Amino acid sequence: NRMIFGFNEVIRDSVLGPVAHAYNDNLPANVRLGIGNFLDNLSSPISFANSILQGDLRSALSIFARFLINSTVGMVGIIDVVGEVDGDARDEDFGQTLGVWGIGEGFYLVLPVFGPSSPRDVVGKFLVDPYFDPFGSMISNGGQAIDYSEQAVSGVDEYSGVVDELEQIKKTSVDYYAAVRSLYR
Fold first, then answer.
1. pLDDT for the residue 67
2. Among residues 10, 56, 74, 147, which one has the fewest Cβ atoms lying within 10 Å of its Cβ?
3. Residue 182 region, left (φ>0) first, then alpha (ψ -120 to 50), else beta?
């Protein structure tokens, strides 16, 4: 894990960090918020399916209604109309679904480029959740370049939201790897 963590740090220092800082420095906050809202809206079918699999029908209906309203009134999700009234959206994945049904998280695992994870979350994120993503399937059918672009924008958007905090933790921790592991756990 430490070796892969070190590799990820090289990628972070040479590519991800500069890209995240450029994203934060050159795009206004409301544009970044709109991009994040759009990407969150695209992932709603995954959260919807996992809420059903978790037996939480109330949450599934809430996610569906939020998706429907934000996709129409919110201009394909760029504006989180429902969030103004109902707060942040629920983000469910198959790793969480496995946890609801009693499957343990497993050991701590550092994935190349993707970072901290666990075997349960790897199964959910990479093997099962893609089947619940109709937009990802449509994009994939349109060409891998579009699919990779969507994944890259999503990764940059997500990382840019935590880059400053991670840099502060790195500056102040004795063992940065252990600090990140503790935060993940």
1. 95
2. 10
3. alpha
Structural tokens at position 81 = 């109309």
Reply yes or no on whether the pLDDT at 68 is more than 90. Answer: yes
Predicted TM-score (pTM) of this structure: 0.87
Please, are residues 90 and 62 in contact by the beta-carbon 8 Å criterion?
Answer: yes
| DSSP per-residue string spanning the chain | -HHHHHHHHHHIIIIIHHHHHHHHHHS-HHHHHHHHHHHHHHTHHHHHHHHHHTT-HHHHHHHHHHHHHHHHTTTTTTS-TTHHHH-SPP---HHHHHHHTT----S-EEETTTEEE-HHHHIIIIIIGGGG-HHHHHHHHH-HHHHHHHHHHHHHHHHHTTHHHHHHHHHH-S-HHHHHHHHH-
Q: What is the pLDDT of residue 134?
A: 81
Q: Which amino acid is at 129?
A: D
- 27-64 per-position pLDDT tens digit: 999 999 999 999 999 899 999 999 999 999 999 999 99
**CB–CB of 139/146 below 8 Å?**
yes
Q: Nearest CA to 93 among 38, 27, 47?
A: 47
CA-wise closest residue to 95 among 67, 72, 120 = 120
